[in-house]
């Protein structure tokens, strides 16, 4: 079941990349966060109320909160910002390229998980597929910046390519922290909602102290796209926890990061005006599938 939940998480986060892209055509980063985060908290909170946690320890709570700060705070913000600047079909592969090696290494060092030849081959296949996907992207990506509808070549924002890398590092670290928390207290829904609520409170404090940043929170046309973004984020985080509860990080993590395959599919359906499907993209997606299958068998 861990593989099924990992694939569900990958599908949720891939669809999220599409909805957030639509919302960002007319809205700011902070608007997206302040609409989607509370919606995600409602989703995870509902599951927590349906199955109230028992036997919680302070150690488990700290792991869950830390995982939320690193994952939903740093990771999700970096990824959403990257999607806004360089597009989902570029941001997603760059993020996932960082994840498999970190998940394998972290699971081996911190959790004493077995690192088999097939797991390494699967992770390398995913990374190779991602590399082909990146090479298949157009040299320029249109995007809307907060100062107005200004189109700039992606090559002028080279620093933006570091954002999905930061997201990949954050998500890998977050999954390790969540796995440690689940070993202390097996309550996936509580782990998900506690991290999300922590991030919401932190952003509220930041916005209260930063008037200029607070001024960017405006509900412009299209802000409704952030509602399904929050729903997908909540479902995705819950699926991550359920996958980690019964599976190894070194198997679950890379499968969750197989999102480029699904992003290609969703982009072809819903972002035809923004995304171009090339043979390199198809080849990279196929290699990613091969890696997912290999890791699934190894688990």
What does this structure look like?
The longest helix is centred in the N-terminal third of the chain and has 29 residues, at about 60-85. The model is unreliable at about 140-155 (pLDDT under 50). The protein has about 300 residues and is an all-alpha fold. It is about 75% helix and about 0% strand. It has one domain (about 1-299). It has helices spanning about 1-25, 30-50, 60-85, 90-110, 115-135, 160-185, 190-210, 210-215, 225-245, 250-255, 260-270, 280-299. It starts with a helix and ends with a helix.
Output the radius of gyration: 18 Å
Oligomer: single chain
Q: How many individual domains? A: 1
Output the helix-strand order. HHHHHHHHHHHH
What amount of the residues lies in strands? Answer: under 5%
Q: Low-confidence runs (pLDDT<50, min 5 residues)?
A: 139-156
Described by strand count, sense and barrel closure, the largest sheet is: none
Please report the total strand number as a whole number: 0
Q: Please report the number of helical segments.
A: 12
Q: For the terminal residues, how far apart are their CA atoms?
A: 11 Å
* Alpha-beta classification: mainly alpha
If you average the pLDDT, what whole number results? 80
Determine the fraction of residues in helical runs and give it as a percent range. Answer: over 70%
Outline type = globular
